[in-house]
Design a protein that fits this description.
- This protein is of the alpha+beta class.
- The chain has a domain of 89 residues: Immunoglobulin-like (Sandwich), CATH 2.60.40.10.
- Helices cover 15% and strands 36% of the residues.
- The protein has 1 helix and 12 strands.
- The strands form 3 sheets. Strands 5, 7, 8, 10, 11 and 12 form a 6-stranded mixed β-sheet that branches. The chain has a 3-stranded antiparallel β-sheet with strand order 2-1-3, with no helix packed on it.
- β7 and β8 form a beta hairpin.
- The N and C termini lie far apart (93 Å).
- The relative contact order is 0.15.
Length: 187
């Protein structure tokens, strides 16, 4: 192969490479991946530092994002929960059951009930939430206030939640919540 042909082939490869890069960049811009808005929760740890998570934890607050805020500079995102000074942790905890509502009738032939609870203010790491069903502990304490009960008998039931520290001491307890399980009978 002579030198002229060799230079022409190198030039063709460079042109092809330029076209490839241009096509690649154009297609990358055309198919940008849009960020999905997932739920984000913020709470404070034992040292008072902010902790962000995608799973709800006892005492965590959900950070609300709009579709536009996912693409705006960070200074435009709601920052009221992100102040730079750690707050002194308040030890006057309150536990509430938000679901089911008191005296609610749950209609589910499988006997399934979903329990939601909240603790305010933010709890220290290592604390647990114990669910009580009809006065008896249901399973082990969890780090969050979301419980799923299965095969609950029909009739009246009472639930409450307790916040438990690392040593097993009850810190706070919710008021009793009564709910009624309605399951159809088959004759």
């Amino acid at each position: 192969m002579d030198r002229l042909t060799s230079n022409k082939l190198c030039g063709d490869k460079k042109v092809m490479l330029k076209y490839f890069i241009i096509i690649f960049l154009a297609s990358s811009l055309a198919f940008t991946v849009r960020a999905t808005l997932s739920e984000i929760y913020v709470s404070r740890n034992e040292e008072g530092l902010l902790v962000f998570s995608d799973t709800p934890r006892a005492g965590a607050e959900e950070v609300r994002l709009t579709p536009q805020s996912a693409f705006l500079p960070s200074m435009n995102i709601e920052t009221s929960l992100m102040n730079s000074k750690p707050k002194a942790l308040n030890n006057d905890y309150q536990v509430v059951i938000t679901q089911p509502k008191s005296n609610a009738t749950i209609r589910d032939n499988t006997g399934s009930v979903y329990i939601n609870g909240a603790v305010k203010p933010s709890v220290k790491q290592g604390f647990g939430i114990q669910l009580y069903l009809n006065g008896k502990p249901h399973k082990n304490p969890q780090s969050h206030g979301i419980f799923s009960l299965k095969n609950i008998d029909r009739g009246e039931h009472q639930i409450k939640m307790s916040l438990i520290d690392k040593k097993g001491k009850v810190i706070a307890t919710s008021p009793l919540t009564t709910f009624y399980m309605h399951r159809a009978t088959v004759n």
